[in-house]
Design goal:
191 residues; alpha/beta; five-stranded parallel beta sheet; 17% strand
Length: 191
């Protein structure tokens, strides 16, 4: 089994709440023998648009091919003003072509794939973000199994927080290990 994680942090440096959560969750995927690749989107040139291929070259077609070849697609995003990150929105818009394929009467190239959602925030909005992404997944043929979201709302995620990656990981381990295990097991069983 192969998973791809689209990491939609806006931070290019290593210390990101969402990146630490992805690294933490990756341990649980490994325990389920699920191989995974993390695509840190901020490190790629992804143009605005609603098709896989645009007139100008960018990195999206390569990322899209990795999505198509994966069994599990995970979106990992921070919450910004009660929404997922802007870079994740670009990916959602670029995946709009999958919806066009479905509307033309063809099967989705993502049929049979599983989806999951990882969210970090400091106050609220995880249900809103999770619901929007789940709705999008369902609209393009990705199946959402039970227990396939992990949302962590904690004041330690605030923009001004000086928490280290080790402190974040300890918090996730102490408070979210059971949830992460349930999510990884659910993804493994659903395939």
């Amino acid at each position: 089994m192969k998973a791809i994680i689209l990491l939609a942090t806006l931070k290019s440096e290593d210390r990101s709440n969402t990146q630490v959560l992805v690294d933490f969750f990756g341990e649980f995927l490994t325990r389920q023998q699920i191989e995974f690749e993390i695509i840190k989107l901020v490190e790629y040139n992804i143009l605005h648009g609603s098709y896989t291929h645009l007139d100008k070259e960018d990195d999206w077609p390569e990322i899209y091919q990795k999505i198509v070849k994966s069994d599990i697609i995970l979106f990992a995003t921070p919450i910004w003003w009660n929404n997922h990150s802007s870079i994740l929105q670009k990916c959602i818009e670029r995946l709009d072509e999958v919806y066009d394929i479905i509307n033309s009467g063809e099967d989705s190239p993502l049929d049979g794939k599983l989806g999951g959602i990882l969210v970090t925030g400091d106050s609220d909005g995880v249900e809103h973000v999770t619901g929007n992404i789940a709705n999008f997944f369902c609209s393009i043929g990705i199946t959402i199994p039970a227990y396939s979201s992990l949302g962590v709302i904690w004041e330690g995620h605030s923009k001004d927080s000086k928490k280290t990656a080790a402190q974040l990981k300890k918090y996730y381990k102490d408070n979210y290990s059971k949830d992460a295990q349930s999510m990884a097991e659910s993804l493994a069983k659903a395939l």
